[in-house]
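Figure 2 data, in text form.
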Amino acid sequence: MEPENVQRVALLAFPGIRAFDVSVITEVWGTDRTDRGAPAFELRRVAVDSTTPIPMRGGFALHPDRTLAWLSRADLVLVPGLDDHLTPAPAAVLAALRHAHARGTTIAALCGGAFTLAQAGLLDGRRAITHWNLVDLLRTRHPLVTVVPDALFIEDDNIWTAAGTAAGIDLCLHLVRLTHGAEAAATIARAMVTAPFRSGTQAQFIEHPTPRADRDADTLAAVREHALRKLHEPLTVADLAAQAGMSPRSFARHFTAATGTTPLRWLLDQRIAAAQKLLERTDLPIPEVARRAGFGSEVTMRQHFASRLATSPRAYRAAFSAGSASVTGGSSPIAR
């Protein structure tokens, strides 16, 4: 008997998909971590023919356990990237993707999986991202797609796309966070020994001349650690620059080059993450959560939750606190 009251996740499989992305999807949604407090998932490997193994590069093979018909039951459909980014997907797969989107099912593609969604016409007139080295190819092959050049992942009309390789991990954890809360994503991330989320864009990974190592890297890492210990204080960019022994302008330039985001944006990301944990793990009053996370006031925290998470602190606590029922199925239509 199939499990009930769990999020149903479909890994869409066809010849040409990348083993790495299959592994990422399986690690996030296919491993039982309910004993550690993580939510339960039902991950199915869906293909045109559920009886035929699908070969992958490196001598691996994926054995489907459901046909495309199972997509009608899925809450989330995941499309791995491709070894050859111009690999044509089977017509039945493309039709199934279009039908899933029409039903309102969340669809997410990792790395070159954006090309599969583009083949299906799902990205026409929508924003999407892929690996930075494939951006021009995606634009050329699918000119109706609005290609965003440097995001780690992006959403448009309940369709998610991610940049290359490790950004697929970022997107998978983000989708867990949207549906089940920050603590659930953090539990899975800890098991994978990876960050629950990364700030910035893939611009920080694009190839640039690097004549020597950044001598300020250790200093900036120490400043970030200092900021995390002092989040409850009214830290400013000038305070962090002083901690690094730099002028604010020089600090901002080095910080952005190292992390792909501005000091102010990074600081806000950390405050929101801290507030999410407090809302999930404690019953502290909302003003106290705002103070401990460094927002200064409940009003300020509420404004940032509205703009970044499309919800309020109280609604977030109601949905994701330890005492609330788990949210299963679908995902928030938050655009980033």
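Caption note: The first helix runs from residue 19 to 29.
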